[in-house]
Amino acid sequence: LGRAAREAAEARAKVAMEGFNIKQGMIKEGQNLQDERVGQVAEKEAEKAKLEAEKEAARLAKEEAEKPEKEALDFYRQLEEEEKAKKEEEVRMKTDTDADELFNKLDTNQDNLITVDELQARPGLDTNKDGTVSLDEANFFLGGIEQFDRQSFRDVGYTLIKPYIDLGPSSWTPPESTPSPDSGEIPTPPSDEMAPPTPAAAGDPEVYDPWRANQAKQEEMIDDAGDYEDEDEESEEKEDEDYDIADTQKDDTESAPEAKIEEKYDDRTRGLIAAADEARKNFNDIERKLRDLDRDIKNIKDVMEKDYGAENEYAVLSGQCFEYTDNEYVYTMCPFDKCTQRSKNGGADTRLGGWGEWKGPA
Asked: How many CA atoms within 13 Å lie on the side-chain side of 317?
C-alpha cells in the first residue's frame, strides 16, 4: 500500500481501538452499575422484610391498645346517648304539654277535637289581615285534614299554629251575643282583636306574619331572579376576600362547643386514648416506610429492566442528560428517559418524547 493509504488505515485502526477501549470501559461501568442496583434492591428487600415483621408486631400492639380504649369510649358514648335521649324526652314531653295547653284553648267546646269553626274564631290565624279567618285560611292550618284530634295536633298542628297564636292578641274570649237595645244594657265596645283594621292602624308597628312574609319572600325571589347571577359573582368574590378560616373555626367553636378530652374523660380513659394514639402512630409510620420502600424498589427495578445493549454498554448513559442549542431553542436529550425543548429566552420545558425501545439494526 502507499504511504497515504497506510496512514489512513492506521488512523482508522487507532480510532477503532479507542472506540473499543471506550466501549469496554462502558461495559465494565454499566455492569458495575447494574451490580450496584442489584445490591440496592437486595438491601431494600431485606429492610422491607424487617419492616413487615415490625408492622405485624405494631398491628397487634395497636389492636391490643384499641380494645380497652374502645370499651372505655363505648361506655362514655352510651352515657352520652342516654343523656341525649333523656333530654330529647324532656323536650318532647314539654312540647306535648305546651301543645295540650294550646289544644285546650282552641277546643272551645271541649269535645277533644279542633274544627274549622274553632279555628275561624281565632283572630291570630287571619293571615291576610282582612278582619276574618276565612275557610281557606282555616283549612290551610288544618293541613288537608278535616279536624285535629289531640295526637294529630301534637304531631302537626301545634308547630304550624303556635307562631300565629303567639303573634296574635294576648288574650281572647269567645264572642258574646250583642245585647238588644231593649235590654237596657250598654253595649261593650269590641276588643282590639275583633275590631276590623282601620286606616289609623297603618302607622302602628307592623306585626310579623310568617305566612305572608314567606309569600312576599317568594315573590321577591321571582322578581329578582334576573339579577342574581351578577350579584352571586360579586358575593362569591367578596366571600373569598373576607373568608378567614380562623374566624370560621371560632364561630363553629362558639356555636357548638365540644368538651376537651381533659374535661370529657377521666384519667384512666385519657391514658387509654393516649396509648392507643401512640400505637396507631407507630403502625402508620411503619406503613409509610413500607410504601416508600416499595416505591424505591420499583423505581430501581424499572431502571434495571431497560435495554442497555447486549452487554449493558449503554447503562452508563442512564441518568445523564445532553444539551444542544440552536438559534432559537435548547434541546435536552436524556437517554432512556425523555427529550425536551425550551426557548433560549426562558420558559417551561416542552416534552418532545419519552424512551420506549431500540429501533433499527443492532
From this structure: 16
pLDDT in tens, 32-76: 988 999 999 999 999 999 999 999 999 999 999 999 999 999 999
DSSP for residue 345: T
Write 73-81 long-range contacts (CB < 8 A, 24+). Answer: 73/269, 73/273, 76/264, 76/265, 76/269
Round to whole Å and give the CA distance between 267 and 290.
Answer: 35
Sheet holding 350-354, edge to edge: 322-325, 329-334, 338-343, 350-354
Cell readout for 68 is: 380497652
Amino acid at 112: N
What predicted TM-score, i.e. pTM, was given to this entire model? 0.50
CA–CA gap between residue 152 and residue 279 (Å, rounded): 54
Specify whether the CB–CB gap between 196 and 143 falls below 8 A: no
Q: What is the DSSP letter of 156?
A: I
Q: For residues 290 and 45, is the Cβ–Cβ distance under 8 A?
A: no
The per-residue pLDDT for range 152-163, each reduced to its tens digit, is 999 989 988 998
